[in-house]
Amino acid sequence: MYQESEIVDLLMVLFLTPIMAVSVRAIHVVGKRRFIAGYLAIASGYVFTIAEGYVAPVLFNTLEHLAYAVGGVCFLAGLVALAHASRVRAESP
Amino acid sequence: MSLVTAIDLVAALAFLGAFVAALAIRSRTRGVGASLKYLLMAGVGLYLFVSVSNVLEHAGITSALDAYEDFAEVLFVPLVAYSLYARSTSEQLLAAETAERCARNEHSLLTSVVEATPAGILVANEDGDVSLANDEARRIVGLLRQAMGGESPGAGAVLELAAIVRSAPVSGLLVSIGDEAARTWISVRAMPLGTEGTDIARAVVVLEDVTDRVLTERELEGYRLDLEQLVDRRTGELLEVNRELEEANQARQRFLANVSHELRTPLNSIIGFTDLLLRELPGPVTYEQRIQLGMVKESSAQLLGLVDDVLELARVESGHGVVTLSEVELGARICALIASMSALAEVRSVRLACDHPDDVVVMTDTDKLGQIVRNLVSNAIKFTDRDGSVTVSVVARADAVVIAVADTGIGIAPEDQERIFEAFQQVDSTDRARPQGTGLGLAICRELSELLGYRMTVESTPGEGSTFTLLIPPAALADRA
């Protein structure tokens, strides 16, 4: 069965993601696509968390943790690119 | 280690790396721009905590952190949303700052240009209200308003700023201020500006004090008129002088012709009667008388030749020489002419030869060309010693048909080579036995060759001989195609 916090997480994903989708188009940041991928991976982890309470718990539990791992890798890649770009920009005259 | 534990370990290591990378971000701006770094660190830190908690839980070490995982997960999405909002705001602020800085720079540049320019520049609307003006514009507008205020009676057209703005674009409008004694001239140009959401038209008006230029132009115009009058007067004087010269020339020609004619008649009588005396028709003459009569006859003939030459030169110089063109086989014609002069060459014991390897047909005046060649050959024979030679050749070159008269005579010094073509000019000769000419032969040759459109040159080396060359242009070649 689901926990209340998991439902709150899912609701926030469902309500805030469309709003964020509008904002994210207007900003320019290095590694933007990797950050978006990391966010979506973590958001999908929320779905898998709730799903594991009803069907194929082992599979969805594994998918949930896998989604977090993918999210972590994406954020790592995005932040490495962003840190590199910021260093280059800071050293330029 | 289970699969989930291994995945959690990967997740923990990835988030740890991401957290370290976020720490390494260098921000050039403070405030909202810099806070993005810390927001990213917070978001990544939340999931670093979640993944570490998962590792500890699934590895069977401790579940103590599990109770806090939910809080971390709940915070994540709002944190991301706020990060995006902060970033968006930061970029908008940055863009606004950049735009403002650009606008300030441009305004500063524009102000500097407007103030530095020597012309008066102002911005006015259709009501005549001035919103921007440099010093020069204020000075000129002050003058204009003073003139409009009636302080300067006799002012010419004055500037109506409102009218100028309404009729923009305006170019080349000239406005004068003040009376004739101290008039100022202002050049006015105007370009319309946008209304910026209002219905009032605006324009940039450029005012330039062109008094100096206008006065200079007027002065130049005065000079130009004076100059034109002077040129007209001088042209009239020159025409008058030219007419007088023409009359004098005609009088000279008439005089020469009359004198020559009056000389020929008694000379012919002298020669004729001398000849009768020499033939002893009136009666016998002594040996001494024969010698003296011979001298009279020779001198008379020489004088008659001189008169003939003077007449011919006067006729050519007066421009009355009529050119009659006909086709002539040049080589054959020249050689026939040379043959007729062989007796003269024999008397002087000079070899006379003619060479015409090319069969050239030209359109020319046969009589005048013959006279030129006759004079040249006669001169060549006269100034060539016994056993010398005179060779006449006719050659067709690409650039001209060339008639060359070459002799092995006494030659002409370089300083005399141009002078000999002038009338009555002769090369000094110490040889008293050499027949004296009139000094007109080469002058007549030069005049006739110019009349025919030919060119005559001479090359000579004193003591070795001379070559007179007549160059006939290719245009004279007869077209027999």
Low-confidence stretches of chain B: 150-158
Question: What's the oligomerization state?
Answer: heterodimer
Instruction: Give the structural class of chain A.
Output: mainly alpha
N- to C-terminal distance of chain A: 58 Å
- Whole-Å distance between the termini of chain B? 116 Å
Work out the radius of gyration of chain B. Answer: 55 Å
3D architecture notes:
The complex is a heterodimer of chains A (93) and B (481). Chain A has helices at 4-26, 32-51, 57-91. With 93 residues, chain A is an all-alpha fold. In chain A, helix 1 (4-26) runs antiparallel to helix 2 (32-51) and helix 2 (32-51) packs antiparallel against helix 3. The model of chain A has no long low-confidence stretch (mean pLDDT 88). Helices cover 55% and strands 16% of the residues of chain B. Chain B has helices spanning 3-23, 32-58, 66-116, 135-148, 161-166, 211-278, 287-317, 330-340, 342-347, 366-382, 441-452, and strands at residues 120-125, 130-133, 170-177, 184-193, 202-209, 326-329, 351-355, 361-364, 389-396, 401-407, 455-461, 465-472. The longest helix of chain B has 68 residues, at 211-278. The chains are: A mainly alpha (93), B alpha+beta (481). The interface between A and B is large, with 40 and 41 residues.
Describe the protein's topology.
The complex is a heterodimer of chains A (93) and B (481).
Chain A: H1 4-26, H2 32-51, H3 57-91
Helix pairs in contact in A: 1-2, 2-3
Chain B: H1 3-23, H2 32-58, H3 66-116, E1 120-125, E2 130-133, H4 135-148, H5 161-166, E3 170-177, E4 184-193, E5 202-209, H6 211-278, H7 287-317, E6 326-329, H8 330-340, H9 342-347, E7 351-355, E8 361-364, H10 366-382, E9 389-396, E10 401-407, H11 441-452, E11 455-461, E12 465-472
Parallel strand pairs in B: 7-9
Antiparallel strand pairs in B: 1-2, 1-5, 3-4, 4-5, 6-8, 9-10, 10-12, 11-12
